[in-house]
Amino acid sequence: MTTTSHQNKRRLRRGAAAVALAAVLGAAAAPAALASPTAAVRAPAARGALISVTPVDTLDRAGVTAELGALGVDTAGVRYGVRAYRITYATVDPKGGPTTATGLLVLPRGGPARPDLVSDTHGTVAHRDSAPSGGKGYNRLTPYLHASAGRAVAAPDYLGLGGGTGPHPYMDTRSAVTATVDMLKASRTAADRLGRPVTRDVYATGFSQGGQVAMAVGRELSAGRDGLRLRALAPMAGPYDLSGSEIPGIADGRVAPRTAVFYLSYFLTAQNRLHPLYKDPAEVFRPPYARMVEGLFDGTHPEEEIVAALPATPEELLTPAWSENVRAPRGALRTALRANDGACDWKPDVPVRLYAGGADTDVPIANSRACAADLARRGVRAKVVDQGPDADHFTTALRSAPQVVRWFDALS
pTM to 2 decimals? Predict the structure, then answer.
C-alpha cells in the first residue's frame, strides 16, 4: 500500500502522477525498442518466458545522483549509472490462466561482470503508468538506487498495470507473487540477451504493498523451485497483517481517513472480482459513490483524481452495514482478508530486516511488529528498523531505501 493523503501528495508529487513519493525518473526514455527473438510469440508456453525488451532510460552516475538527490535521498551508495528497460513476459492470471505482464529491468553501467539480482516490488498505484515501467511515478526511485550500487533490479508492474492486460487484482498476494517470480525469470533471460548476465542470487525488497509482496515472494523462492536463490529479505512498511493491524487501523483511525477511503475502495472493488463480496456496489458504497467507484479503478485515472472523487472519511463512503463489517470483518470480507494474510507465516533461512516508521498513518508500524512476532514464533529473529517517531510513510521509504542498499552490500 502507499498513501493517498492530499497534503503529502501535493508536497512530494510535484505534478507527477503517482500516489506516493513523486519523481519522474524516466524522463529521458529512449525511443527505440529492442525486441527479443521471441517478440512475435503470441502465447508463450512457459511462465517467465521473455516476449520483448524495450529501452526506456539511460543515466550516468551524475544523472542518478541528481535525480535521487533532488528528493532528499542519501546518494552515498550511488557508484554507477543505470540502463532501464521495459520487459514484457508470460505469466498467469489469478485463476492460473495464461496472460502477459510488464516490468522494469534496471542494469548497472559498471560493477561486477555478473551482478546479483534485486527483486523490488512497488507500492499501491491505480494508474497504469504509475507502475515502474510506466515512468510517471516514484516507483523508479528504488530500482535506480539499487542498480546504481551494482546490482540488477527486477521491478514488476504486477498484473493489469504498466502494459499488462485486464484490471489490476489489487492486494491479491498470490498473483502478485507469480507475476514477481516470473518477472525475475524473464529478467535473467533479458539480461543474458543484453550481454549483462546476472547470478541466480536474489535480494528481495519492496515498499508498502510491495513490502507485503516481498515477504510472500521470499516464501516462494525459499522453496527452490525456480532456479533462483534467496539471499536476504528487506521489506519496507508493508501491510503484512491485514486482519490484525491494517483493517483495525482503518477502523480506529490509526490509518488517515482519506488514505483509508482510497485503500478500502481499491481493495473492495478488486477483491470482489476474486472473492465475491457484493452483487451490487450499492450494498457496500453510499450514493453517489456506488455508481462511480468501480470505474475509478480501471487503470486510466490518476491517483489524485480518484482521491478527489471520493469522500473524506470511510463513514461517508460505506453503508452502515459495511462500516460495521470493516470494524468486525465477517463472511466474504473475512475470507478475502485471510486469503491475503500470512506473508510472514513461515521460517526464512536468510537474514530478514523489517523497515517501518513510527508516524506512518498509511501502514501503521503495528504491521511490521506483527510480522516480526510471526517470524519469532518460528525461531527467526527479524529486526524491526524503526525510522523514528517522525517517520511517516514517505519518510520511511526515503530513509530506509539507502539503508537497505548498504545492508545488501554488507551481506554480499
Answer: 0.90
